[in-house]
Design a protein that fits this description.
Blueprint (H helix, E strand, L loop, with lengths): L1 H5 L2 H18 L36 E5 L4 E4 L2 E3 L5 E3 L2 E5 L19 E5 L8 E5 L5 E6 L8 E6 L15 E7 L5 E3 L10 E5 L3 E4 L3 E2 L2 E4 L8 E2 L19 E2 L4 H20 L5 E2 L10 E2 L2 E5 L3 E3 L4 E5 L5 E5 L3 E3 L5 E5 L6 E5 L4 E4 L4 E8 L2 E4 L8 E8 L3 E4 L2 E3 L4
Parallel strand pairs: 2-10, 3-11, 12-15, 12-30, 13-31, 14-32, 18-20, 19-22, 20-23, 21-24, 22-25, 23-26, 24-27, 26-28, 27-29, 28-30, 29-31, 30-32
Antiparallel strand pairs: 1-5, 3-4, 5-8, 6-9, 7-8, 9-10, 16-17
Length: 411
């Protein structure tokens, strides 16, 4: 004010206008499509799932979803993954189309800043590496250490990310989440690899009694890739409805190399699920879990697991993971229902079954999750009232069906 008093009224008016203009600009008063000004990523940023900046082509790549999701709270600070390797909480971005991994991958840490994670208030970058999945659709940021409890983090995908054709995302994608108040280790999902492209896969055969309805791919290694096997073969990438039925019909794989790779990936996934050791629950209820509510974590049973017609509820967040390990069989009696609570997703529920018989699902069962069985999987629903599975059936030996509906979980 003292400077205004010494100078002319014109000078004071100009200075006040300048301050007002700066204030409006800092508050985003000029518009320009700020998706979420709280994130502080600038007027061209968008959240995961948003279409991008106005005028961007509908075919341009962007991030369709992220984990942890935008605004998530109580996020784990660390992740236990394959081989029981502890790392900071994994952060993933799923793109709407295949990307060029050379524009996103970052190894060693910090060499490429397309996908970053930073403390929201301090702006300090979290050291870590970034890698794409086999399909080049999911980027995973792996921090080199555990995240800080009770901390706000911001993840960013910059416009350096390009699709396979060289088209960059139109706008940076930015989202934030907050870690749990105390240190918390979560399980990483079991990576299924090429086995995850199948609704049903076995190493020997798949049989069915007319009529089952399978909403995804069916495959079997059948004693050797490319040999005549007991199955009805489905071209990878198509949807198959078995209303015509099949029982031990001879067929030949159209892509024996892919099927062989899927068999190998299924074994890797089984061993990963079996080998996790940081258990949250051991021999819970002696395996008699009917009527129970199961929260996220790793469950270990030195026995089989039985669910009767009172069912169970699996409840948690969209990013939470459940791994159920058992040395015995998994048995769901007639009418048993697996209910999902909260935002729990079937794709994040893994049943590792080590028993000599395998998994047995009775009449009118409603099941959720991925079964990885060392032996067989039997789904034997009755006429017109068959068992319904939202998940995947992956078995080392036979998968047998009887008038069932099998639907892979949402990605």
């Amino acid at each position: 004010m003292s400077n205004c008093k010494r100078n002319s009224a014109t000078t004071c008016g100009w200075f006040t206008a300048l301050l007002l203009s700066a204030l409006l600009a800092g508050c985003g008063g000029g518009g320009g499509g700020i998706a979420n000004p709280v994130l502080g990523a600038g007027p061209t940023s968008v959240l995961p799932g948003a279409a991008g900046t106005p005028g961007a082509a509908a075919t341009d790549p962007t991030v369709g979803s992220a984990s942890p999701g935008s605004g998530a709270t109580n996020v784990a600070t660390a992740t236990n993954g394959a081989g029981n390797i502890l790392a900071g909480k994994l952060v993933t971005a799923t793109f709407t189309q295949a990307m060029n991994p050379a524009t996103i991958n970052s190894a060693p840490a910090g060499t490429l800043l397309t996908f970053t994670l930073k403390e929201k208030i301090s702006g300090i970058n979290v050291p870590g590496t970034v890698a794409m999945n086999a399909a080049n659709t999911v980027a995973t940021f792996t921090p080199t250490g555990a995240l800080t409890p009770n901390m706000d983090y911001t993840a960013t995908i910059t416009t350096a990310a390009k699709n396979a054709g060289g088209t960059a995302i139109a706008s940076p994608v930015v989202w934030s989440f907050k870690t749990n108040a105390a240190a918390l280790t979560a399980q990483a999902p079991v990576v299924l690899g090429k086995a995850g492209t199948f609704a049903i896969f076995s190493n020997t055969a798949v049989t069915s009694v007319f009529q089952s309805d399978i909403k995804g791919n069916v495959g079997t290694a059948g004693g050797g890739a490319g040999t005549t096997i007991a199955c009805t073969e489905v071209t990878v990438g198509t949807v198959w409805d078995t209303d015509s039925g099949f029982v031990n019909a001879a067929c030949r794989t159209t892509d024996p190399v892919f099927v062989g790779a899927a068999a190998g990936d299924m074994l890797i996934a089984y061993n990963d699920a079996k080998g996790r050791v940081i258990a949250d629950f051991t021999d819970l209820f002696a395996g008699l879990i009917s009527g129970k509510v199961l929260t996220p974590g790793l469950y270990k049973w030195n026995s089989g697991v039985l669910i009767d017609n009172t069912g169970i509820t699996i409840t948690g967040g969209a990013d939470d993971v459940w791994i159920f390990q058992m040395t015995g069989d998994l048995t769901l009696q007639n009418g048993a229902i697996v209910t999902l609570g909260g935002a729990a997703q079937a794709k994040n529920i893994f049943w590792q079954v080590g028993g000599g018989t395998g998994a047995i699902l009775g009449t009118t069962v409603a099941f959720k999750g991925i079964i990885l069985a060392d032996k067989a999987i039997s789904v034997d629903g009755g006429v017109g009232t068959g068992a319904v599975v939202t998940g995947r059936l992956l078995a080392n030996t036979l998968v047998s069906l009887k008038m069932n509906t099998i639907t892979p979980p949402a990605p």
